[in-house]
Amino acid sequence: MAEPNSVGIVTAQTAHFDQPLTLMSGAVLPAYDLTYETYGRLNADKSNAILICHALSGHHHVAGRHRLDDKSPGWWDNMIGPGKPIDTNRFFVVGVNNLGGCHGSTGPSTINPDTGKPYGSRFPLVLVADWVNAQARLADYLGIQQWAAVVGGSLGGMQALRWSISFPERIRHSIVIASAPKLTAQNIAFNDVARQAILTDPDFHGGDFYEHHTVPKRGLRLARMLGHITYLSDDGMGEKFGRMLRSGEYKYGFDVEFEIESYLRFQGDRFSGTFDANTYLIMTKALDYFDPARHYEHSLSKALEQAKARFLVVSFTSDWRFSPARSKEIVKALLDAKKHVSYAEIESAHGHDAFLMDDKPYHDLMRAYMTNIAKECAA
């Protein structure tokens, strides 16, 4: 039975690019694939296209299901679909898996045509600016000269911000949700601990574990467990798990006793079975390196002076990984650069993950903003 307000069954597509891509590191990808999905219809003047940028562990599958028996829909299905805040009756929505990913786009697990083996440790680091450059080529491939909006949460928000700087003529609205202008030392520290868990796993083999027919699951599991703690708030975790015991009494050992331990181990196990360790390293490094002000005398407002987009910046009160104060830094820089920006701080107990949750005030805000964009497209 068809699900109401769903884009339904969707099929991923792949775009191949033979034009070499020079990365910020100086490395060159001679050719590459980008996997993407689309929902809705591109209008006659191609003015209603929305790009959805994914966060660290995200991918191109944003809405709908690949099969009727899929247990879960796309990762932002509560936001995207017919009648939803990003309404596919009005917009042509594109979800893309970034370079370096492990869900179809060229990445470390892809076969390197020069060696006939997976790239593994030979796959170069890819930064946010590189992803945006690759996405611009995907826009060309789809015949889209200008996005009505580029939307993203967390690492996706950084891409939305970068789009406004790298391609000011090709984006009308930049929607930056639960994000930051750059990482703090604490955030970089979290990322490095996660990376060390992977790098020191005996099954990692310097990044070439594919050739050893193994997977560094232990390291990836620990990395995900650590990351997951930072995606939740203390209040939210307390409300959901508190100090609940699985058996109802202390066992005085190191096996799982508290429900929160069970939850984190489940999340870590599930993630380590579906995600690529090298991709995790690349994505966290892209987070660490993101600093668009770096080439503008360390002034974000100078970096944003060339932007022509209008901005919506959204934060959540309980997000301590990218707190509202970090979003306000972006807002201040935009105001200093005399740009048009709207800002909202949403009351939420869900921590950093709040941008993925079904929250009425948040969704009402997004719906109202996107409705105005739809009116522009129809004008």
From TrEMBL:
Q: List, alphabetically, the GO terms of the cellular component aspect.
A: cytoplasm
UniProt domain AB hydrolase-1: residue ranges: 48-355
Q: Which UniProt keywords apply?
A: Acyltransferase, Amino-acid biosynthesis, Cytoplasm, Methionine biosynthesis, Transferase
Q: Which residues cross the membrane?
A: none
Molecular function GO labels = homoserine O-acetyltransferase activity; homoserine O-succinyltransferase activity
Q: Name one GO biological process term.
A: homoserine metabolic process
Q: What is its EC number?
A: 2.3.1.46
Q: In which pathway does it act?
A: Amino-acid biosynthesis; L-methionine biosynthesis via de novo pathway; O-succinyl-L-homoserine from L-homoserine: step 1/1
**What enzyme category does the UniProt record give?**
transferase
Coiled coil region boundaries: none
Q: Where in the chain is the site Important for acyl-CoA specificity?
A: R321
Entry keyword annotation includes Transmembrane = no
Entry annotation: catalytic residues: S154, D319, H352
Give the location in the cell.
Cytoplasm
Residues bound to substrate are R224, D353
Question: What HAMAP family does the annotation carry?
Answer: MetX_acyltransf
> What family does the entry list?
Belongs to the AB hydrolase superfamily. MetX family.
Q: How does it assemble?
A: Homodimer.
This chain's function reads: Transfers a succinyl group from succinyl-CoA to L-homoserine, forming succinyl-L-homoserine.
Q: What is this protein called?
A: Homoserine O-succinyltransferase
| Annotated source species | Chitinivorax tropicus
